[in-house]
Amino acid sequence: APSDPDLVQRAAAAKAALGERVFVLGHHYQRDEVVQFADVTGDSFKLARDAAARPQAEYVVFCGVHFMAESADILTGPDQQVVLPDLAAGCSMADMATAEQVEQCWDTLTALAERDGRGIERVIPVSYMNSSADIKAFTGRHGGTICTSSNAERALRWAYEQGEQVLFLPDQHLGRNTAIRQLGFAPSDCVLYNPYKPNGGLTDAQLREAKLILWRGHCSVHGRFTEQCVDEVRELIPDVNVLVHPECRHEVVQKADYVGSTEYIIKTLEAAAPGTAWAIGTELNLVRRLADAHPDKRIVFLDKSVCYCSTMNRIDLPHLVWTLESLVAGKVVNRITVDPETARYSRLALEQMLALP
Ligand code: CIZ
Ligand code: SF4
């Protein structure tokens, strides 16, 4: 639906009044009505870095979800205030690993290592960018690294140089897909740790022998694509190229032609020849925008049902207008802050990612 012209005009006026004092970041999964006001767009990692690249901006308005705004707060200067236009914009995947659950898992692994007469240092945490600041800090405290969907292979290879076993949080699919497709692991090298069961629902032997312990988290958007979606689109468009994000389930990734991060998906479509057909397995706002940007290619969504990220979509034009107008009035609403201790250890894990070979 077209945006309300009155709200468009108010957002533009408020943004103009703030000038260089505000920097608006827009994630690729945001609505068009919001993205039109973004100074930069990107995936979660690119936006966190871009936020830090504009130190003169007093206010960083993060049109994305909560964990992304936390990362921006961690990486920006002390005088910059990060604002999330709707505090209910969380991430169901990030919420699947709470600090308490992860500490309990670590206690379980520590106790097992002690019983075996081995150190817990053999276990290296690797956490996906899509996690809370608490989980990033946990990762930094225990000598691990953060990863994104672009560098998960490098992060895992690095981790196996530091230790023998990896605890991968919170997206089981990114962990499994990377280990099997890029590191050549067998499915049996991986176990799934269920935080709602004692010992993760695993035996001591399973926990001890697994090369990779996958946290039982997933993305509710990417997790919806099925093998049937791939079969159906291939039947409908025989020469279609199926391109999916590695947050999709392993069976779907195995059936796809290309697999990669948000930035990879964007670049692949830019480089694709005119007249080619593509079915994309990622969030729908992005797929629609890509289809509009490439009218010379046939770009379809890999599912027949609608598949937005509902929490991303909570950031809409009315929330953006309210946020910007509040800032004009000198009132900072919905500020996201990470406490200094958490920020310090999170930064360690993020810096480790940046130092990956
Ligand atoms: O699924 C997501 O939320 C992704 C891929 C985010 C990001 O920007 O990395
Ligand atoms: Fe979280 Fe998935 Fe939404 Fe990304 S698309 S913010 S991982 S729920």
UniProtKB/TrEMBL annotation:
<feature type="binding site">
    <location>
        <begin position="245"/>
        <end position="247"/>
    </location>
    <ligand>
        <name>iminosuccinate</name>
    </ligand>
</feature>
<feature type="binding site">
    <location>
        <position position="219"/>
    </location>
    <ligand>
        <name>[4Fe-4S] cluster</name>
    </ligand>
</feature>
<dbReference type="Pfam" id="PF02445">
    <property type="entry name" value="NadA"/>
</dbReference>
<protein>
    <recommendedName>
        <fullName>Quinolinate synthase</fullName>
        <ecNumber>2.5.1.72</ecNumber>
    </recommendedName>
</protein>
<keyword id="KW-0004">4Fe-4S</keyword>
<dbReference type="GO" id="GO:0046872">
    <property type="term" value="F:metal ion binding"/>
</dbReference>
<dbReference type="GO" id="GO:0034628">
    <property type="term" value="P:'de novo' NAD+ biosynthetic process from L-aspartate"/>
</dbReference>
<dbReference type="InterPro" id="IPR036094">
    <property type="entry name" value="NadA_sf"/>
</dbReference>
<keyword id="KW-0479">Metal-binding</keyword>
<comment type="similarity">
    <text>Belongs to the quinolinate synthase family. Type 3 subfamily.</text>
</comment>
<keyword id="KW-0963">Cytoplasm</keyword>
<feature type="binding site">
    <location>
        <position position="44"/>
    </location>
    <ligand>
        <name>iminosuccinate</name>
    </ligand>
</feature>
<dbReference type="GO" id="GO:0005829">
    <property type="term" value="C:cytosol"/>
</dbReference>
<dbReference type="GO" id="GO:0008987">
    <property type="term" value="F:quinolinate synthetase A activity"/>
</dbReference>
<keyword id="KW-0411">Iron-sulfur</keyword>
<feature type="binding site">
    <location>
        <begin position="128"/>
        <end position="130"/>
    </location>
    <ligand>
        <name>iminosuccinate</name>
    </ligand>
</feature>
<dbReference type="InterPro" id="IPR023515">
    <property type="entry name" value="Quinolinate_synth_A_type3"/>
</dbReference>
<feature type="binding site">
    <location>
        <position position="149"/>
    </location>
    <ligand>
        <name>iminosuccinate</name>
    </ligand>
</feature>
<dbReference type="InterPro" id="IPR003473">
    <property type="entry name" value="NadA"/>
</dbReference>
<comment type="function">
    <text>Catalyzes the condensation of iminoaspartate with dihydroxyacetone phosphate to form quinolinate.</text>
</comment>
<keyword id="KW-0808">Transferase</keyword>
<comment type="pathway">
    <text>Cofactor biosynthesis; NAD(+) biosynthesis; quinolinate from iminoaspartate: step 1/1.</text>
</comment>
<keyword id="KW-0662">Pyridine nucleotide biosynthesis</keyword>
<keyword id="KW-0408">Iron</keyword>
<dbReference type="GO" id="GO:0051539">
    <property type="term" value="F:4 iron, 4 sulfur cluster binding"/>
</dbReference>
<feature type="binding site">
    <location>
        <position position="309"/>
    </location>
    <ligand>
        <name>[4Fe-4S] cluster</name>
    </ligand>
</feature>
<feature type="binding site">
    <location>
        <position position="262"/>
    </location>
    <ligand>
        <name>iminosuccinate</name>
    </ligand>
</feature>
<feature type="binding site">
    <location>
        <position position="27"/>
    </location>
    <ligand>
        <name>iminosuccinate</name>
    </ligand>
</feature>
<feature type="binding site">
    <location>
        <position position="91"/>
    </location>
    <ligand>
        <name>[4Fe-4S] cluster</name>
    </ligand>
</feature>
